[in-house]
Amino acid sequence: MSMEGKVAVVTGGGNGIGQAACIAFAREGAKVVVVDIDRAACEQTAAAISETGGVAHAFMADVSQSGDVQSYVKYTVDTFGRIDAFFNNAGIEGVVSPLVEYDEANWDRVIGINLKGTFLGLRYVLPVMIAQKKGAVVNTASVAGTVGAPNMAAYSASKHAIIGLTRTAAGEVGKHSVRVNAVCPGPIKTRMMQSLESMINPAEPTAVAKANVARNPMGRYGEAEEVARVVVFLASDEADYVNGAAWLIDGGRTAI
What order of strands is seen across the sheet that includes strand 135-140? Predict the structure, then answer.
């Protein structure tokens, strides 16, 4: 899965799956632009890569804002001359609430970051890749984009839409040797899962974790690094004929 000499952009690179992907891309030889709304977090990720001999630049941006997205794309092209891999990953969980009580402002925020942010990333990165006649995008969807997620209406809707957007983009840009795929993680040991556990059962969040693990054929949560390895594979030349796919990374949870 060598990424030697290639340039990767990762949104939401300050923590969790995004951070693990930044480190994985760098480990395979890529120069990495770490994008996150949290300046300290993306700088920390970039510093960790630099300390191990890799090349990484931090860029603070709000992926729901067109100007910010155009800025991180321009910065990457101005700095490195190209974008070979784009992990369009930034997203939030929103709140846990029945659909009939779901707050409109929370709905707008989740859709704005998860779905609009993914759209804007595609909108401004794809032209760079089309001009290069080569490139790979990996969008972050979720198992919640393949099945229902009670009490997480905005999150589930955004992730279903990301899979549709992935397939649509793949159909449009494949002729330019540009590929667009999605990963669909199940429960992964990250800040987001801890947040969801606390919202679902504030009194005993560990009970939520135990229930999730009990429903998983592999009997555990996934690790961010396990998702990152799939992301790097999909972005590499090893996956050169994989286009428009939504890869489940859930330990078999949706298989039963």
Answer: 56-60, 31-36, 7-11, 85-88, 135-140, 178-185, 246-249
